[in-house]
Amino acid sequence: MRGTTGRTTGSGRATRRGRPHPHDSRYRQGFVLGLSVGMSLALVLAVVAFVLTRPQTSPPASTTAAATTANSDAGHQQQAKAAIAITARHLGNLRVQIDAQVTAPVSYDPISMGQVVAYTDMVEMPMSHRKGPIVMAELGNRKGTYQAVTTLSMIGEYDIMVEVKQPMASTAHERLAIKSLSAGTG
Question: Would you call 136 exposed, middle or buried from its count of C-beta atoms within 10 A (0-12, 13-18, 19+)?
């Protein structure tokens, strides 16, 4: 064959000296072997890095802010949390009345003019029937008592969470089972 600078293969194709053709079985074997070794080394490196690295969890942003505030105090006191007593009552037809008595942690004096919200969530199907924030209003005749009325999605057991946002951040949970549409059964 004229014009070729190499040997000819059995199929009549010319190849360059010293470099196998990509369809040659030796080329494929070397390629697969190199790829396998490279991937194995990468996997071993990843496993070693995973085993030797200590996980570090970062606290939630609200905890960080509270810790910063607490640490900046001269006495390094912990952030006080409000005490919350929840009463939930089924009014009938899937309506629920939520009452929350919010008091100071040590003196148990009622906390009035606070920012209080409630959330309802079905226990059997979390996040599927979640409602909230439901703004709770303070009762005029009872200082520190907040109330809200909401309608639930369906019959079942619900987790009622009351959250005090100001002046002292705190949360509390109460369970309420709604067994029928008539009042007083849950």
Answer: buried
